[in-house]
Automatic annotation (TrEMBL):
Keyword Hydrolase: yes
Origin: domain of life: Eukaryota
Essential cofactor(s): Mn(2+)
Gene3D superfamilies associated with the record: Nucleoside Triphosphate Pyrophosphohydrolase
Organism: Medicago truncatula (Barrel medic)
SUPFAM superfamilies in UniProt: Nudix
Name of this protein: Nudix hydrolase-like protein
Keywords linked to the UniProt accession: Hydrolase
Family: Belongs to the Nudix hydrolase family.
Length: 155
């Protein structure tokens, strides 16, 4: 992957909007009250765009979204110390944090397509909602510094 910062796990994030320009967020099953946008690791040999489409499908069941825009560079964040130890054990690496490629995608169908238990992967989310950009910035955890400067392109 081109220009990937060394020591950071490659990852994609999806800012999914609906026809009202609201943003999809979901609360994590394993961390009650932690809201986030769909995201996940890029598999070996996988292109970031393909990873974004796959992660959205696996985590939400959505297949009808189209990519509208892509942040042209890798955005990085460092893991907090407690998180770093846990994820490095889980992923078997020595990552400082994650380098993310963010994609703006638009849902082309209605909410009926959303299914948090698709069967493709273990469910990650307990519930979901549509939120304004302001709500997203308030509710999403430490990673928000990575993407909130790019949120302007959603509306």
């Amino acid at each position: 992957m081109e220009n990937l910062p060394q020591g950071y796990r490659p990852n994609v994030g999806v800012c999914l909007i609906n026809s009202d320009d609201q943003i999809f967020v979901a609360s994590r099953l394993n961390v009650p009250g932690a809201w986030q946008m769909p995201q996940g690791g890029i598999e070996d040999g996988e292109e970031p765009k393909s990873a974004a489409i796959r992660e959205l499908r696996e985590e939400t069941g959505i297949v009808s979204a189209e990519i509208i825009a892509e942040v042209d560079k890798w955005l990085t964040y460092d893991f907090p110390p407690a998180v770093k130890a846990k994820v490095n054990r889980l992923w078997g690496g020595e990552w400082h944090g994650q380098a993310q490629k963010w994609f703006l995608m638009k849902l082309k169908k209605d909410d009926g397509e959303i299914n948090l238990a698709t069967g493709e992967a273990d469910p990650e989310f307990a519930e979901w909602k549509w939120a304004s950009p302001e709500e997203v910035i308030e509710q999403v955890s430490y990673k928000n510094m990575t993407w909130n400067k790019y949120l302007f392109f959603t509306v």
